[in-house]
Amino acid sequence: MDPNGTLFFPGQSSTIASEVDLLFHFVLYLSIFFFALVTGGSFYFAFKYRKKGKDKFTPGISHNTPLEIFWTVIPTILVFIIFIWGFKTYLKMKVPPANAIEVKVTGQKWFWTFKYKEGANTTNELVVPVNKPIRLLMSSKDVIHSFFVPNFRVKMDVLPNRYTTLWFEAVEIGEFDLFCAEYCGTGHSEMIGKVKVVSDADYQAWLASSGGGSDLTPEEWGKELYKSKACFTCHSIDGNPGVGPTFSGAFGREETLADGNTITVDENYIRKSILEPQAQVVQGFQPVMPTYQGILKDEEIDALIAFLKTLK
Ligand code: CUA
Questions:
Q1: Are 167 and 134 in contact (CB under 8 A)?
Q2: Domain range annotation of the chain
Q3: Does pLDDT of 156 surpass 80?
Q4: Averaged over 177-186, what is the pLDDT?
């Protein structure tokens, strides 16, 4: 198959993809064949043995043992083929190689965070080396989400209070879409990310340099964080309200809170809203923001504040 995919399928970008597709197509074409056979046969016989005259019924045929055996044995064999084939592929997808690189994945409304044991920590962007098995250890902070990368043909639910795992090995360098495939509330359709597959050398370099942002001004870094930490999912910068208040003109604005008090949006209010989002919610908005405690470092919060100040 074309690496870029076809009209019906995305490209096969993991080791398991072609195997999954082959089994899928086997079941699909087998089903189409029997569908045509059964419906075609029904129409043909309904026409051939239709009632023509008054007494022209075909004499009753009630049983044919060889025929019964034939149409029982053939489908049973086919079902066994599908089961054994499917189970083998399932086991392969379920059991990661022992040398797999482990990344901790957290799903929450409405973004993904990835933690590497080397210390790197990303939002909505999973960076992995090509041709290496990757094992994801996943859990949710709130409701059920589902981790789905169509190009890799892998999907697994991500649950609160329990770990689920998934593994894959990417076979080509590139960026692949990551979706949440379980309806999880208002921002479900925005819960999207990328899997960035890079060469092993680039991966090592990325691990060593991650956490960076040092070559940017605080304002530029804040703008990067606004995108990479998925703030944009709920907070626009064009003045339109989303799930949360717009960032446009937010700094210095007077806001009425849910409890009726008014505040001025300053550095401390922004910091508190990031770390304790439920403490001072602006009137008219739901208290749905997750805390970024442990996700954003102090310098990153400083950079976001600097960025907000630029939005008039
Ligand atoms: Cu998370 Cu849908």
A1: yes
A2: 17-94, 101-208, 218-310
A3: yes
A4: 95
Question: For atom 1 of ligand 1, which residue has the closest CA?
Answer: 145
Tell me the C-alpha distance between 235 and 228, whole Å: 13
The answer to whether residues 301 and 267 touch, using CB atoms and an 8 Å cutoff, is no
Round to whole Å and give the CA distance between 128 and 118.
Answer: 13
SS3 for 255?
strand
Is the pLDDT assigned to residue 215 strictly greater than 70?
A: no
Q: What is the DSSP letter of 162?
A: S
Pairing of strands 174-180, 121-123: unpaired
Same fold flag, 101-208 and 218-310:
no
Q: 3-class DSSP state for residue 62?
A: coil
CATH number of 101-208: 2.60.40.420
Å from CA of 40 to ligand 1 middle: 43
Homologous superfamily (CATH) for 218-310: Cytochrome c-like domain (1.10.760.10)
For the whole prediction, is pTM greater than 0.90? no
List all residues whose CB is within 6 A of at least one atom of ligand 1: 107, 110, 145, 180, 182-184, 188, 191
Place of tokens 């920590």: 121
CB 84 within 8 A of CB 71: no
